[in-house]
Amino acid sequence: MGALAEREVLRVLRLWTQTIAPPVVAAALFIVVFGVALGASIRLIEGFPYEEFVVPGLVLMGVATSAFGNNATSIYQARNDGFIEDPASSPMSASQLLLGYLAGGVVRSLLIGALTLAVARAFVAYPVEHPWALASALVGTSLAFSALGTVVGLYSTGWEQQNVVGNLVIQPLVFLGGVFYSIDALTEPWRSLTYADPIFYMVVAARHGMLGSSEVPLGLSVGVTLGLAAAMLAWSWWTFVRGVGIRT
Amino acid sequence: MFSTPPPAARSSAWAASIRIAWSSLGGRHGLCSSAAFEAGSRPRALRSPVVDRDGAPALLCEGVTKGFGAGVTALAGLDLEVPEGAFFGLLGPNGAGKTTLIRSIVGLTRPDRGGIRVFGLPAWGEHAAEARKAIGYAPQDVALDRFVPVRESLMLHGRYFGMPRAEARRRADDMLMAFDLTAKANSYAHHLSGGMRRRLLLARALLHRPRMVILDEPTAGVDLELRHDLWAYIRSLHADGTTILLTTHYIEEAEALCERVAFIRGGRIAAEGAPSDLRERFGALRLEDVYLQVVGR
To answer: Quick one: which of A56, A84, B193, B243 could link to B58 by a disulfide (CB 3.0–4.6 Å)?
Structure first.
């Protein structure tokens, strides 16, 4: 398992110009454009300057999308090229395979989250009121989307399917999850739809961890985040046990 | 790939040099102990027999059945036994079920019914991990990780099979030397020639010192020279006591290498035996004639 995890992490680090730099640069651009350039024109959001308000959501957006993309791509590539059969025909169990592949997505996404926070610090003097809440939100999100990416990577029969899930499902949910706005500013039915978006709770948990307050209670947001992570991990484990995409 | 002898002596000289390289590496038993070295270099007849705890065959397939839906039955109650230490060939046309059977043994295709045991251990279920440790598998398709260098891909394989990092590295370097790939240790698989990739597949299959090596059409698409080199590699493995299960389309390859062959047709074993016995049984001069009688349309 350690070998597979090492392989996945080294892949991320070796391809850092593709895996790490672009999401961090994109997040920095969001912070500069939406936060700094437009922030002065926008009134306080939930009592916070806009540039501070958007940072948690942007960090979480980077973590979620990179965790999903990494594992979906890595696993599908291994299947498509056939070299997944080497670890699959080894004595490793389904759990060991899962943990090995999760390592790449988790390391990549948390690294992106950390670098985004570091870059954001250069532009925005954000607080971190509850570090454990922030860490729970980011780690839970990383696990959830790494596991989801694993499932999609195993089920995919072509690259276009990953793009469909990533671009037409996850990205809209992320953007509509309150990254750039407060749910209190929405009218129905958008408000109710946002409450139905699981990513909203991840964003809110991260925001509470940094800013100290949020639109829903912290226990609910962290609970939904960790619950979703547990559900995705269970789904991905079961997918490996059944041998989907690996064993015929 | 080794120093070039005169053409007339090429095969025997290369086979000898490969045998020397393999024996000097301690064969399947490794490098470390003098006993292991002795085990690797003594003539086969003088070595203690490698007997499984309960004398189980290297491979036992009983009633193995596998369908892929829409009326496609790849394996139809296949029975097969491969004794330990045997050099066993499996021949059959495309679609006969050879690769499906191999993949069922190594854990990549789950049979619908029946049982598969490797040295007495079930290939699926609770003890599958132990069974897989005993198998080295070189697939028909050259599927190599193109994101890691050659040495690292070998080390990863060793570690997938439970070897500690340092041992995996030593073993990887040994295999690179044995298969004349040392100069390509830091290259990536897509930078290797077709022949080098075939050798790398075989090196990978042998890295964790398996008791049985399964080679799925190892010489498909390779030139005549490399084919004979690979034959020499495989013969040296067998001489060291490793069980070999070889699938091939090439009758001459089966006749040159295998002690026993089985013909597979329609997902079942149609005939089995030593090449000479099969020729006699079917009244044929050549194994190819037996093949055509048993499998041909």
So the answer is: B243
Q: What is the pLDDT of residues B153-177, one digit of tens each?
A: 999 999 999 999 999 999 999 999 9
Task: Tell me the C-alpha distance between B143 and B140, whole Å.
Answer: 9
Query: How far from B163 is each of A28, B106, B172, CA to CA, in Å?
Result: 43, 19, 11
Q: May I ask the CATH class of domain B7-294?
A: alpha beta
Q: Which domain holds residue A137?
A: 2-242
Does A76 fall in a domain?
yes
pLDDT per position as a tens digit, B34-53 = 333 223 333 333 333 333 44
Is residue A25 in a domain? yes
Whole-angstrom distance, CA of residue A166 vs CA of residue A68:
8
Given a cut of 50, the residues of chain A with pLDDT beneath it are none
Three-state SS at B20: helix
Assign B31 a pLDDT band (cuts: 50, 70, 90). Answer: very low
Letter for the amino acid at B261?
V
pLDDT confidence of residue B159:
96
CB neighbour list of residue B95: distance below 8 Å, 6 or more residues apart: none
- Report the residue of B156, B188, B202 to disrupt the A interface, i.e. the one with the largest count of A CBs within 10 Å: B156
ipTM of the complex: 0.86
The secondary structure of residue A187, as a DSSP letter, is P
Q: What percent of chain A has pLDDT over 90?
A: 66
- The pLDDT assigned to B54 comes to 66
Closest-approach residue (CA) in chain B for A97: B160
pLDDT-derived band at B275 (thresholds 50, 70, 90) equals very high
pLDDT for B132 equals 95
Pairwise CB contact (< 8 Å): B137 & A89: yes
Q: Is B6 exposed, middle or buried (0-12, 13-18, 19+ CB in 10 A)?
A: exposed
Instruction: Dump the DSSP string for B144-205.
Output: --TTSBHHHHHHHHHHHTT--HHHHHHHHHHHHHHTT-GGGTTSBGGGS-HHHHHHHHHHHH
Model pTM? 0.85
- Considering only CA atoms, which of A83, A2, A74 is closest in space to residue B201? A83
What is the band of B230 on the pLDDT scale with cuts at 50, 70, 90? confident
Taking the CA of residue B276 and the nearest CA in chain A, the distance in Å comes to 35
Phi/psi-derived region of residue B258, left when phi > 0, alpha when psi is between -120 and 50, beta in every other case:
beta
Q: Give the residue carrying structure tokens 């949020």.
A: A214
pLDDT confidence of residue B11: 39
Interface test with B, best of A90, A96, A247 (most B CBs within 10 A): A90
Task: Please indicate, yes or no, if residue A248 is contained in any of the structural domains.
Answer: no
> CB A128: neighbour CB atoms within 10 A?
14
Q: Give alpha helix (H) positions in chain A.
A: 2-14, 16-19, 21-30, 50-81, 85-88, 94-121, 131-155, 159-165, 171-175, 190-195, 198-211, 218-242
For residues A145 and A68, what is the distance between their CA atoms, to the nearest angstrom?
A: 5
Contacts of A222 (CB under 8 A, 6+ apart): A133, A136, A137, A140, A205
> Domain total for chain A?
1
Residue A247 lies in a domain: no
Residues of chain A with Cβ-Cβ distance to B162 below 8 Å are 91
